């Protein structure tokens, strides 16, 4: 089994600041670091570090070979990452001393993924595999349709949130992952609460309050308490959660067990500064024994 991830690849430019700037305010950064990021890349790294075979489908510019090589180092299958005629995507991340962040994204090559590339990437995929995508690439509906036609389990992390983009793929989804704000925005756009959506499994992350899983087939809802940690950087925590969740499901875990594993990984992630480069591996998560 494998996870096929149609996902973004970014250079993350991380600026440490004493506090997040107010409108019109100019601040001097305490430090600047460049690392691998993008929601798609983060999720692929998390899935690979959780022990899954993760095939990344995406694009970089001529300036992005370092990102592909980094993904390879972290165990991601990069054979279907294309070099396209666009700059590699990047994100400007502002991080304060409390661990809060603000992020600006330039999509670049992430919006140049083509239908033929997706078809080639999914050529060996089948009903035992999972398809994952987010809202940072082109051809999202095309990818979801192709995966659904192959009988794959289709999972969507609805970020960065766009109600129209979510509604365009909603009929194709088996699993929808979104945070509390995104869930509220989607409910406003559709008139449906998460538990009423036409998706079998809906997972709503609640930050420091844990997460909630709605099984719309059975009508049951289960709430999971957060793992208690002191955060230093929340960047990439949601992506780590998603990658580990998919990896757990790929290994045949029941949803509740996969959510528990994903929460442990995300909790460990927020104790570190950075994104893809610091996502913990499975042994680190198991050894950490967070939350007692």
Structural features:
13 strands; alpha/beta; 9-stranded mixed β-sheet; UDP-N-acetylmuramoyl-L-alanine:D-glutamate ligase; globular; 292 residues; 31% helix; 4-stranded mixed β-sheet
Structure description:
By secondary structure, the protein is an alpha/beta fold. It has a single domain, classed as UDP-N-acetylmuramoyl-L-alanine:D-glutamate ligase (3-Layer(aba) Sandwich), CATH 3.40.1190.20. Helices cover 31% and strands 25% of the residues. The strands form two sheets. A nine-stranded mixed sheet has the order 5-4-1-8-9-10-11-12-13, sandwiched between helices. The protein has a four-stranded mixed sheet with strand order 3-2-6-7. A hairpin with a 5-residue loop joins β11 and β12. The longest helix is centred in the last third of the chain and has 15 residues. It starts with a strand and ends with a helix.
Architecture blueprint of SSEs:
Blueprint: E1 3-6, E2 10-16, E3 31-37, H1 39-49, E4 54-60, H2 65-73, E5 77-83, E6 89-95, E7 101-106, H3 115-121, E8 130-133, H4 140-149, E9 153-157, H5 163-169, E10 175-179, H6 180-190, E11 201-205, E12 211-215, E13 220-224, H7 237-250, H8 255-269, H9 282-288
Parallel strand pairs: 1-4, 1-8, 2-6, 4-5, 8-9, 9-10, 10-11
Antiparallel strand pairs: 2-3, 6-7, 11-12, 12-13
Helix pairs in contact: 1-7, 5-6, 7-8, 8-9
């Amino acid at each position: 089994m494998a996870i096929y991830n149609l996902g973004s690849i970014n250079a993350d430019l991380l600026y440490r600041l004493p506090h997040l700037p107010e409108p019109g305010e100019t601040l001097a950064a305490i430090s600047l670091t460049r690392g691998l990021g993008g929601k798609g890349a983060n999720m692929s790294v998390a899935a690979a570090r959780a022990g899954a075979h993760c095939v990344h489908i995406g694009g970089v510019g001529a300036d992005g070979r370092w990102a592909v090589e980094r993904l390879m180092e972290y165990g991601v299958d990069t054979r279907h990452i294309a070099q396209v005629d666009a700059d590699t995507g990047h994100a400007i991340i502002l991080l304060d001393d409390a661990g809060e962040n603000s992020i600006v994204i330039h999509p670049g090559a992430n919006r140049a993924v083509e239908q033929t590339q997706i078809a080639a990437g999914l050529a060996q995929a089948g009903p035992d595999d999972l398809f994952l995508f987010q809202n940072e690439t082109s051809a999202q509906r095309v990818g979801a349709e192709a995966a659904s036609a192959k009988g794959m389990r289709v999972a969507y992390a609805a970020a960065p949130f766009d109600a129209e983009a979510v509604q365009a793929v909603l009929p194709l989804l088996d699993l929808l992952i979104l945070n509390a704000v995104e869930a509220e925005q989607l409910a406003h756009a559709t008139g449906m609460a998460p538990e009423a959506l036409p998706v079998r499994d809906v997972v709503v992350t609640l930050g420091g309050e844990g997460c909630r899983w709605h099984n719309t087939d059975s009508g049951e809802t289960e709430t999971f308490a957060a793992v208690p940690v002191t955060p230093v950087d929340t960047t990439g925590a949601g992506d780590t959660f998603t990658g580990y969740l998919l990896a757990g499901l790929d290994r045949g875990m029941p949803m509740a067990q996969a959510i528990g594993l994903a929460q442990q990984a995300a909790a460990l992630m927020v104790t570190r500064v950075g994104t893809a480069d610091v996502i913990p591996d499975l042994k680190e998560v198991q050894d950490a024994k967070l939350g007692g």
